[in-house]
Amino acid sequence: MNSRIVIPQVAPEAYQAMLGLEKYIASTSLSPVHKELIKIRASQINGCAYCINMHTADARKLGVTEQRIYLLTAWREADFYSDEEKAILALTEEITLISNHVSEEVYQNAAKLFDKKYLAEIIMAIITINAWNRIGIATDMRAE
């Protein structure tokens, strides 16, 4: 198999721009658990093993239980997530699967639970992890 490019080596400016988004996400008021739930769920949908591996480890360090991590793929059928987390997960799924658009119901539910700034931060976190997933998958980054 041919090896694929390493973006930071061949396009460092582009990689720095992505790191700028990540730095912004790190500076937001999003709770660390919300950030990791977003990152894990989007990465599961996108099939990015590298990111799933990284963010489940990060979630564990924050005290997220194995049970909550394992049940993320079936969060609607599990009673382990708050209303806020469910709204974030629904929005994560619809933005990640954007060809189906973001339904008014999902958006308005999130808008009821979060102020405008927090909602903007959630959306930007979802967009950022989706971009990282696409970089990881396109360049064949592997979980180790």
TrEMBL record:
Entry superkingdom: Bacteria
SUPFAM superfamilies according to UniProt: AhpD-like (SSF69118)
Pfam families: CMD
Domain Carboxymuconolactone decarboxylase-like: 12-94
InterPro entries xref list: AhpD-like, AhpD_core, CMD-like
NCBIfam families per UniProt: ahpD_dom (TIGR00778)
Protein name (database record): Carboxymuconolactone decarboxylase family protein
UniProt source species: Flavobacterium ginsengisoli
